[in-house]
Amino acid sequence: MSVWLLCALLFSLIGRTKQDGHLTTIKEVKVYAEETDTSEDGAWVLNVAWRDEFSENYVFKKISYEIEVFYTENMSRVHSETIHVMPNKTTFYHWKWTSPIPLQCTSHSVRLRHRDQLYVGEWTPLYTYNGQDLNPVEAMVYPRDQVFMIGSNITFCCIMETVSNVPYPPFGIQISNRTYITEPIHFYWHNESTTDIECVFKKGSSDASEGASVFIGYPPDDQNLTCITRDLSSVECHWERSTKKAQLIQRETKYKLNGRDCTFGQCGLPAMTKQVTKWTLVAKNPLGVKTLTDIADPTHRVKMRAPIQISHVAYARNVTLRWRWNEKNYASFPMICAVKLNGNFYKEHFSGKGLLALVLKNLQPFTKYTAQVRCGSNESFYEWGSWSEITEFTTKEDNPEAVDVWIQYFEQNAYVLWKSLTPQQSHGILTGYNITITNPKGGSQFDIILNTQLCYKINETNGQTITVQATNSAGLSPPSTIIAPSYPDNEVSISHINSSNGGFEISLEEYRCSTCGLVVEWFLTYNKSQCGVEWERIPKCDRGTWNKSDNLKPGERYTVSVYACSNDAPKLLKRSEGYAIEEKPGKVENLTGKNNGITIELSWNKVPLHLQKGFIQGYNVTTLLSGSEKIINNTVTKEHKVNLKLDPGSYIFRVSAFTSGGEGDYTMFKMEKENFDQVIAATIVGCSAAALVFIIITVLCYRKRKWLKKLLYPDIPEPKLAGKWITKGIYCTQMTEGYVKCDIQEAQSSEHPALSESLHGLDLISSNSKVPAHFYINFSESPVEVLYYPVEKLTSILENPSYNLTMPEPVDVPQISNLTLEMQDDYIPAPNFDQNNLVKDSESYKPQSTCTDEKLL
């Protein structure tokens, strides 16, 4: 068989050579540009068609052709290709080539020849497609107003009017006498999908320009075609646009649904068949075509339209909504409807044929509501229909809810207080509160009406029953009752409660269940105010913990109490104090210091309670060396004083309190630390020196005792007489009838002490004693007159203002007070006189003054 094929091939070649020689058999060659909607603004595809009259004896299954494309003016080859086709003498062969530049930029010439394994034919003549550069009347830029895929590389050409015109870059490559091209320009996505290309060239003495605009985008990429019915008689189809960013601006995509032109969002068919139907959508733009299909029974694809003309009839706790339909086919259509109330779905659905009304229950009285309605198929539910317009209504007022009542004791007074009702609890506009106080002993009661006050003072708290009711236009709330105890229950001790996450936490499991649960009360410990108590009720037997963290002030101490709620008065179970959030405390007060031997003792007062800001955990004591501010000691103590052992010197002490919230500001104190050894030495030296001086003075005084006595206590000299001294004395004897007889006798010298003793031993009694009224005076040396004087005159006679002598009382001798003798000598020894005694014994006598001589009166 192979031999036979080889022989046939040789015979065919010999016969063809004899018949045609080297002449080509390619006939009827046609060269043209492929026409599109935008080919006038830039044709890119060059088509070549031809026929071949090869020999009938040609036995090869395929025929090969070589094709070459040239820029006509300078005959530069831009493309060459070999193609293979099946032999067919009756039809044309076709070849397409896409040019890198628009075909209008310059003329393109094509030639081709036949080629097989044993034979290469001659080239056909050049067949030319003429460009716009042959006889241009003005400068032109290609391509223009065309659409390209994002990421494309496009080459632009600029055709000059004359050969002498040369454009500026980027048109820098010349391919013909009048045509210049750019390097391929890459197009990527940016905010705008339109790009302008400008060709600037020199024209005369000035610059001229010509430009073009191109568009970038993607081919159609629509998705998810879905066809539904809304009125039960026609079909609407919906789909999604491409998710890609680039969209065409002027080159919009064209759509066709089952062959009917439509636009995006408005594609539909006027008739509907109640059976499975197929819908086909074709999307097309200059960059490509996309086809979508959907198959379904339209009666299972019902999306109802929205109800219209919604009305309402509102009551305190329910409302009736009514509407109507704009589609007559809905009258008997089984449907299910849903309601959105204040933006939230109502918990219940409503169903029926041709539904036109529904009732919403369990609403809040005196509350504004908004409502919307939508419906869907109840038999073959596909999706919900469109929402109706929003309708607004307000429910009517109703009786308020019960208020939360509590008792507070403040400054020896009791107050009943209650929490304000929220708008949801008041069920209307509150007009006031009714308070009923019942005395259990006498059974009497009285009512009080308050407007907006939330607190009322109770005059007596002896088991009274207090009932509070809120009122509005609809009526009174249920009564809230509490029994006031006789006195505040302060029998429990106060403990500390630690903060937990910025609040308080109390375990409830430790308390036994009461008849109505527990009540937790809290208030500011140091800023407690009238009616400033807050409380929270814990349901009966609610286990777990109670937490409170909101609306608590940082750095403030709170008193938290737990009460048992029962049918009787509340009973206090526990009371604690603590801080929700501890802060740094204030300053300590009255910081003082003193030297205490070898140490310095610092002491201070506590931080005031309202400035503690937390539980004081201790005090930081910092010791600094005065002048250098060098810290030499840090001490932490929980006491309010501290002893610091320091060397002598000047120090600055800083004391600050601290809590878990931080350290407060310090209080500063400065003092000197004395040298204790020097103090002891100075004390010993001083005491020793004083003792030595005392000893020396004592010794000197002892040795000079006679001199000191003479100097300080000299001896009293004996009386010395000047001139003639009458050496006479006075001697008195008691007479009868209240008189005393006194005689003047010679005075005895020192050798006769008996007389002086007798004289000094006289006692004169006072005038109050029983004595004679007169006395007798006798002068024996010379005749004298004896005188008798009453006792009361004796005082003036014997008075001596310069010398008084007191004498002891002798037995049986009357006492004469204030006896005074006037002597004629310079010195008179006389006894001392006082009010009761005249003289004492002679041994106590001492001369004290010197008198001038005078006559005795």
From TrEMBL:
<keyword id="KW-0732">Signal</keyword>
<keyword id="KW-0325">Glycoprotein</keyword>
<feature type="domain" description="Fibronectin type-III">
    <location>
        <begin position="488"/>
        <end position="586"/>
    </location>
</feature>
<protein>
    <submittedName>
        <fullName>Leukemia inhibitory factor receptor-like isoform X1</fullName>
    </submittedName>
</protein>
<feature type="signal peptide">
    <location>
        <begin position="1"/>
        <end position="19"/>
    </location>
</feature>
<dbReference type="InterPro" id="IPR040817">
    <property type="entry name" value="LIFR_D2"/>
</dbReference>
<dbReference type="Pfam" id="PF17971">
    <property type="entry name" value="LIFR_D2"/>
</dbReference>
<dbReference type="InterPro" id="IPR003961">
    <property type="entry name" value="FN3_dom"/>
</dbReference>
<feature type="domain" description="Fibronectin type-III">
    <location>
        <begin position="304"/>
        <end position="398"/>
    </location>
</feature>
<dbReference type="InterPro" id="IPR036116">
    <property type="entry name" value="FN3_sf"/>
</dbReference>
<dbReference type="InterPro" id="IPR013783">
    <property type="entry name" value="Ig-like_fold"/>
</dbReference>
<feature type="transmembrane region" description="Helical">
    <location>
        <begin position="679"/>
        <end position="702"/>
    </location>
</feature>
<dbReference type="GO" id="GO:0005886">
    <property type="term" value="C:plasma membrane"/>
</dbReference>
<keyword id="KW-0472">Membrane</keyword>
<dbReference type="InterPro" id="IPR052672">
    <property type="entry name" value="Type1_Cytokine_Rcpt_Type2"/>
</dbReference>
<comment type="similarity">
    <text>Belongs to the type I cytokine receptor family. Type 2 subfamily.</text>
</comment>
<keyword id="KW-0677">Repeat</keyword>
<keyword id="KW-1133">Transmembrane helix</keyword>
<feature type="region of interest" description="Disordered">
    <location>
        <begin position="838"/>
        <end position="857"/>
    </location>
</feature>
<feature type="compositionally biased region" description="Polar residues">
    <location>
        <begin position="838"/>
        <end position="851"/>
    </location>
</feature>
<keyword id="KW-0675">Receptor</keyword>
<keyword id="KW-0812">Transmembrane</keyword>
